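Hi everyone, sorry if this is the wrong subforum. Our group has a chain we'd like a structural model of before ordering constructs, and none of us has done structure prediction before. Sequence below.
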Amino acid sequence: MLVNHYYLTNKIELQQKWTKLYAGSNRNVFLDWRWMDAWLNTVPINPIILEATYQEECVGLGLMCSKTQRICFGLMSIKQLWLHKCGNEKLDQMWIEHNDFLLHSQYEKETRVAFINHIKNTFAAWDEFYLGMSSKSIVNAFESVLGKPRVVITASDFEVDLNSIDNIESYLGLLSKNTRSQIVRSKKLLSKEGDINLRLAQTEQDKNVFFTELCKLHQKKWRHTATGSGFDNRVFVEFHKQIIFGDIDNRYSGIYSLEINDKPLAFIYLLKNHDSWYFYLSGMETHSDNKIKIGLLTHTLLIQLALNNGIKTYSFLAGDARYKKSMSNNSDGIQELVCYLKPSKLNYFLQKLRHLKSLLPLQHISRE
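Answer:
Right subforum, don't worry. Here is the predicted structure as tokens:
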């Protein structure tokens, strides 16, 4: 297997290689070309392309960004590598998850190891390599070559496995009595106010309206929190406009509105691949009746729609919100953002400094 790296000079050629390889991969929704294309179009970067070939066939691709970080009051610098991220809080607010190299499913493990060894042995100057958010199994695969990483962020990764669920009644039967009663009560109370409808933004006009209202509701909830709202970030907004408005047939994304008598109460933004739906974020009104749980009901209706469409997984993605756990039947997953350190005197010194902060809790993400 041959691995090389080079700077991006021909985006059309990269797109052709990426889309062909994606078709033979496990189709990670965050490694779809539509995500990568929006990223390349909105973020001011010229990434390093990692490419693996086997018997003259491309079996692996990855995009890395390099960054020099000044530390210790500017007296020292560390060189960082980031996979499918920039290392800049604003430019990375799109928040890729399940991050990994794009790999041909037939050669997945050996190609990943070849890439990691290439980074370790061929990239001359780096001190830190950042990976994430990624599942624990992927973090461990990198660890087998690069050593134990420093965990920067950790979060639970909740999902609903729909494979053994035939209908929405079967799903509700898997939930706790308290969660199930909240959902049933919410639907009963809300239906007294009128017709409940779940609507997908299909036309460009609908998408404009839904996107604008989603933005307002998300800003209202998150703008004045430590997390903040991505919709206050121009790069974040442009990135998602490219995804949503470029996805004419809604095969990769969808904004859904929960409506009562044609009045929207909630908007949920999903990412999609061939057999899974991923809850990315939401914007919701607060109902005057605190017994009506708009969020629980909206997700339940989307899970019902997913079942009707033969979807196998409804993922809540990373985050420790209580409702994600209460609505999931698979809560064992973990995703992490980690940093692998190249052995050096500099990193030995930095590890000693970080030890002084070792009693501080890990960061956790919070997104709806």
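For your construct planning: The chain has a mean pLDDT of 93. The two ends are 42 Å apart (CA to CA).
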